[in-house]
Amino acid sequence: MKSLWNDEDAKSMVDHYAKEGATSDVALRIYTSRLLGGDPSLALHGGGNTSVKTTLPDLMGDDCEVICVKGSGWDLVDIEPAGLPALRLEPLKRFIELDRLSDEDMVNAQRGQLLNSNSPNPSVETFLHAFLPAKFVDHTHSSSVLAVTDQPDGTEICVEIFGERAPVVPYVMPGFALAKLAAKTHADNPNSEGLILLKHGIFSYGADAREAYDRMISLVSIAESRIEAAHQKSFVPANLPVRVADVASVAPIIRGAIAQIVDDEEGLWRRQILEFRTSEIILAYVNGSDLARYSQVGVITPDHTIRTKNWPLIVPVSAVGDLDGFAAAARAAVTTFVDDYHAYFQRYNTTAQSKTELDPMPRVLLVPGLGLFGAGKSAKDAKIAADIAENTISVITAAEGIGRYQPAAEADMFEIEYWSLEQAKLGTGAEAPLARHVAAVTGGGSGIGAATVAAFAAQGAEVAVLDKDGDAAQLVANRIGSNALAITCDVTDRLSVDRAFAEICRTFGGLDILVSIAGAAWQGRIGEVADEALRASFELNFFAHQHVAQAATAIFRTQSTGGVLLFNASKQAVNPSPDFGPYGLPKAATMFLSRQYALDYGVEGIRSNAVNADRIRTGMLDDAFIAKRAHARGLSPKAYMREGNLLKREVNASDVANAFVNLALARKTTGAVITVDGGNIAAALR
Ligand code: ZN
Hints:
Blueprint: H1 7-19, H2 24-37, E1 49-57, E2 63-69, E3 86-88, H3 89-94, H4 103-112, H5 126-131, E4 136-140, H6 143-149, H7 154-162, E5 168-169, H8 176-188, E6 194-197, E7 201-206, H9 209-229, H10 247-257, E8 260-263, E9 268-270, E10 273-277, H11 280-286, H12 291-294, H13 305-308, E11 313-314, H14 323-348, E12 364-367, E13 371-376, H15 379-402, H16 410-417, H17 420-423, E14 438-442, H18 447-458, E15 462-467, H19 470-480, E16 485-488, H20 494-508, E17 513-516, H21 531-559, E18 563-568, H22 581-601, E19 606-613, H23 623-632, H24 637-642, H25 653-665, E20 673-676
């Protein structure tokens, strides 16, 4: 492992933060924290923490000796001064005289020394940083260090390779007790450069930012050399079918299997979003004949349990052509997993203050022949679980190369999983109404479609934006965030539709809501219209809706967790305008299509509803068309748009989008048509 320290970068960081009023100590603390956080083999998703002891003025202008330490909820890779809350150092150091300190007292003691009471909670490892005398202290969960410590003889290996440079601290749960033990180990070895925390990670320290950072790199390199020197044995592959089913077919089965019914009567499910990963390294691992042993002994470092649980679920291999068999086996495996999780909770929940069991569903799923899935309440959480799973695989692969992987004991992992200070990292805010849902919007690149994408994303859904114009879809997806998926899709082409829905399953694991919007207005007097025009309109305004509804329904049925179909009908379906037959006819059929789906699939919890919108400026009607129509009636375009509108309020794309959201949330409504037109009595349903 190479040091990435660069004098120029360090200096420009100091100059940059000087403008924001931060001292060079804090700026350099940020610089090396980001160097560490930028390497996933050192720190992943909030793992690791850093500190600097320095002087800052308090509100009276008096210089104050403080420790700036990483705040809870911050990531090293993009840390800012606000993520390094300052605490008065001397009062913290005095706590070393205590034999023990409860979690509540520890949090309170830390918060009590904050210079700024609005700061985030300082790291649970703050006392450890404070008790070490060095100015700069760095802590990571280095993959290579974990591979050498997570061994039955981890202590012996570490004593041998690190010697006096980094003495070993036996495993103790993070918090006050670990801080005291680490301080004592350092006091016994005052010339050390760091500490190896058995089955947890590594600390390094130094007089300046560079020394602490370079020592981290140097110590981690020792572990890397030990791994390289080991006789690398690869996993012995298990006997697998030659052809395994593809990810797009397997994902909705798994997603359905790990969804929990919360309220059967209400049709309420607790779903998860999936993130698929595969690579040569992942495949060698999941295909190993000994997978059931090395994958099930526990996480590589304790704080991963809050993201991945202590062990992943192994899903039986999925041979091509036997998806039904796979589904049955996957559901049985999930049932066993849940039973095991209940038993694990019962085994360790013996403390006086009894705890509440967390949801028992897996967060990581290993599928031999295919790869792994991360699972979570959002695409972001699923990615975090998948990142940790990939990192876990590289550590266990290295650990098995050295000897035999053996992490901290299960009881220790339970303590961390159910530690209030760890759970606090995940946050407890209420979830958005459509969190845990995947929505696909056709015609999502513009007008009503783009507004609908934004409306569903605002309610917490993961959204796939489908449009014939891939660039337009990408622009809309970019606007709602990095997890949105843009797909170029011609909804009149069945193959294109099938490809798009397979991509949705590969990306999110499945689908819960379809909003079928893509359409266009054909015109012509019905007695004179060309067959080609009428057929073209039917292709887009009827058959395309049927293509996407069929594709979505197939996924809904595979998941067995219900589903929502939403169609963009039109007032033309019930209140035809002159010369709009080619548009109104297929739209009438589409409105009927919505009801047919409601009728045929209600029994499976699949709802189907439609919106009748009218006079949407950004919808089917372009400005030139509106101007022409308005002119023919002797009206201004604005007056034309409000004509026959009882409320005299212009209808916008976002009004239609909100109607779709409301129908998605209306769990007792199916077969309905909602009108969004400001009140056009001639278009009222009868
Ligand atoms: Zn740690």
